[in-house]
Design goal:
With 174 residues, the chain is of the alpha/beta class. The protein has 9 helices and 5 strands, in the order βαβααβααβαβααα. Strands 3-2-1-4-5 form a 5-stranded parallel sheet. It starts with a strand and ends in a 15-residue tail after the last helix. 41% of the residues are buried.
Length: 174
């Protein structure tokens, strides 16, 4: 089973672009930690759209059980990223969908395969499920205050040839 854990930045961006359901192409289940849901609802204010994703079955709610590690990680990361990393361990997830550099560094140390928003968008565009990655990135920058450099976008486009799930990321597969 291909299990992913998603952080709020990826979730917010994919929901905003109406592409979150396309993750079913790559994963059997995508867990959304409680802290990520809280941040999503605070920043995106579209609880209805998130609930529709849960109803469809790909996305599932989860809660952190290891409160000690959660508290330790929140010293370095925000709550959503910390809980997502703990959930990845608790649920045996192989994939971590995240944009923030510090969380990516920790995910790499945990042996997770990482994908960021732009890498996911690049693959979706390559496969014909989305159009014009530069237009999508521009929309996210304008409407969601998404911060990503053009060099990261170019690297994501270059790496899009490698199918999701077979690409072992270091830190820059954003």
């Amino acid at each position: 089973m291909r299990i992913a854990i998603i952080d709020s930045s990826c979730l917010i961006c994919l929901v905003h672009l109406n592409l979150a359901s396309e993750l079913a192409l790559y994963f059997d289940v995508v867990y959304v930690p409680r802290s990520v849901r809280i941040e999503f609802n605070r920043k995106h204010r579209s609880r209805y759209r998130l609930n529709k994703l849960f109803e469809a079955g790909l996305f599932q709610r989860c809660m952190c059980k290891d409160e000690t590690n959660f508290q330790l990680l929140t010293a370095e990361l925000d709550a959503g990223e910390a809980e997502a990393l703990i959930q990845a361990q608790e649920r045996g997830a192989e994939f971590f969908l995240v944009d923030e550099r510090k969380a990516r560094e920790i995910g790499v140390r945990q042996g997770l395969t990482l994908y960021g928003t732009v890498r996911l968008l690049a693959r979706l565009c390559l496969e014909g499920y989305a159009e014009d990655i530069w237009g999508l990135v521009r929309k996210l920058r304008t409407e969601c205050d998404f911060r990503v450099g053009d060099e990261i976008v170019r690297k994501a486009i270059a790496s899009a040839e490698t199918p999701i799930g077979r690409f072992s990321d270091t830190l820059y597969n954003r």
